[in-house]
Structures
1.
Amino acid sequence: MRHRVAGRRLGRDSEHRLAMRRNLVSSLFEHETVSTTIEKAKEVKPFAEKLITMAKKGTLAARRQAIALLGNRDIVNKEDGKVVKKGTIIGKLFSEIGPRYLEREGGYTRIIRLAMRRLGDNGQLVLLQLVGAGETVTRKSKASKKQEVDEQIENEEAVEAEIVEEETDDLVVDDKPEQQ
């Protein structure tokens, strides 16, 4: 029995799990979206969110702690057949990703289920993404939600009234019979 045993094994030993987690989060920070299985995504999501929270602090201690947890892999691209270094994962995390979420309290990543399944083992595929910069979650009170619904109903009723008026204006009633 697995009573009070946290985490998923994912069919790997501990070193392989740790390396997989680091590589998946590094790829997530580099590309901002990664396709993987649902189990891996659920296991990696809290780790990625903790690193983003560290990046929001922006201190030297937080940067060193992130390097210890994640490593400092280079971001490289191939341009004209040459490998060009674009920076490092930690650099991008602390200079771009961390400041992007300063106003956000949490929930920096999302898991979107895909309709596709992996060929070999029929595993459920998902997209693990960083939530966009422009997307903010605003909580509305019940009163403001009710007011918004009431306004929407009033607008719909006004549109319906206009349509009825236009239809009645178009109808012309001739009381006189046609003469030939």
Note: The chain has a mean pLDDT of 87.
2.
Amino acid sequence: MLKSLSDHGVRRMSNHTITAALICAVLAFAATNAWAGPCTSDIADFEAAIRASQKDPLAGLTAPQSVGADLSHQPTAASVAQAQARLKKTFAVTMARAKRYDAQGNGPGCTRELAKAKRMYVL
């Protein structure tokens, strides 16, 4: 009789543990959704599209043509590297600003910055 009581206690404890784990999972999911900003899903979709385009040679960061290019000046390797570095930095700053606005709940700011980032990246 003692053995059957202790087995019942173990099963009962396991059910409580499972229930507690399930409740924690549901609360964590609800908290994640509650913290989502006004354009969190748009940012995630854009970042997923960027990752998906990594093998596409036509995809990547782009910038408007410079005045020097309009005057038929040939770029040097150093000037191209500088331009690429500036573009990467500008893109990273723009995405960080969009995420910051999103975290603050600033929908218009987030949407504006995300639109700027999308104009810099050809998918």
Note: Strands lie at 60-61, 121-122.
